[in-house]
């Protein structure tokens, strides 16, 4: 078995993001939500994700903005975020291995936890 390399450049990020979202689009649970939300704007979303991950992993200011607001109203719960992380980790582990790869998985897990927590907070009227 060939040794997998670590995520090290923009081309690696594009491979990671494209493969991950290809898997999401085909997923029975997540696919309908993403496909309904993005419709014909997938290329725009992918470009944002390239910049987001460049910023997160390489400290390159390729993304600005707040990632949470577009997700706030999605019909998702912990089950969706758990599936998102499972697909993310499975996808990335087939392609890469190393310190930055582990950082990406940790950041994705933390982001999913935070997004789920914030969505639950905003949905629960007694928290307002």
TrEMBL record:
Among the GO molecular function terms of this UniProt record, one is: metal ion binding
Q: Which top-rank group of organisms is this from?
A: Bacteria
Q: Name one Pfam family in it.
A: Bac_globin
In terms of InterPro entries, this protein maps to:
Globin-like_sf (IPR009050), Globin/Proto (IPR012292), Hemoglobin_trunc (IPR001486)
The record lists heme as bound by 71, 117
Q: Recite the UniProt keywords alphabetically.
A: Heme, Iron, Metal-binding, Transport
Which named protein is this?
Answer: Group III truncated hemoglobin
